[in-house]
Amino acid sequence: MSEPILQVENLVTGFDTDAGRVVAVDGVSFTVPKGKTLGIVGESGCGKSVTAFSITRLLPQPHGKILGGSIRFENRDLVTLSPEEMRKVRGNDISMIFQEPMTALNPVQTIGKQLCEAVLLHQPGIEPREALSRSLEMLNKVRIPAAEQRLNEYPHQLSGGMRQRVMIAMALINTPKLLIADEPTTALDVTVQAQILELIRDMQQDLGMSVILITHDLGVIAEVCDEVIVMYAGRIVERGPVSEIFAKPLHPYTQGLIQCLPKLDHPPKTPLPVIPGMVPSLAEMPKGCRFAPRCPNKHSDDVLSQRQPWKECGHDHGVEACACFAQQLSAS
Ligand SMILES: Nc1ncnc2c1ncn2[C@@H]1O[C@H](COP(=O)(O)OP(=O)(O)OP(=O)(O)O)[C@@H](O)[C@H]1O
Ligand SMILES: [Mg+2]
Q: Atom 18 (ligand 1): residue with closest C-alpha?
């Protein structure tokens, strides 16, 4: 594996709610190799966004808190940085894009003004004219047609796909080392989705940056990512190179997600397979294997009561080896 740009070690993140503290990310560890794309996949509520907001320190305040662990980025622990230092890291070194571009774009400012401000904020010495030409160059890079004219337009004058491109331009204008894209294409129709994914992939190669791509869609992971972590109920259940995870999924949850992918030979007008049941609520997490209540395999009671051990299975492939299938692993 190449040198990591980000190392997350035993991250625990929670929220203080009226009903007490809930833990949304519970002991998550992973690394992002330099210049590679790591996918984070899992159903809704598994803790993907909370992991991203922990890294960027954008957790909702005052309720969201990092309760433990470390997030090392270029030999600094982001968890202990002051808000001021963290602001410099965000936008300069680490950028984030979201599902809904309007959350990041200002509706009452022109695209040009917003892009220029992003440049000037992080590179105060730069001439405004230079910032403007950088903005134009960036709009061209993300393949916005009639870019010069767009500089004077407002976000509402653009289509959803174009707005997403502007947000990507804004996130990349200071050439970050790490881009975190949280469901960047979920709100878009399929053709635009494919174009945006291709754009992220091209920009990643062009700028040599590292990317964390968050999605609930394994199809997207297969298209764009080098490695993937599979999250379930606030924990990582499996991690590995994408080709390996698709060829040899080990955890029953990963297997379930792969089985649910739509297939071309699926008979028309018949229901697509689903994983029965739901992600457990944060207040009622099983102590042991969190997937056990939905798992098709037979398991004993202690699988529910004890956290299952992590097992490395070669080729950077690792899995939370629940007793219900661990025997098969040692046999293979
Ligand atoms: N502000 C908050 N207060 C309390 N709980 C929260 C808050 N934000 C998120 N959570 C809880 O944390 C858990 C993880 O949420 P998260 O948003 O990370 O899920 P996700 O994997 O990104 O899901 P999705 O695919 O729907 O975006 C969920 O159970 C969610 O209800
Ligand atoms: Mg999310």
A: 47
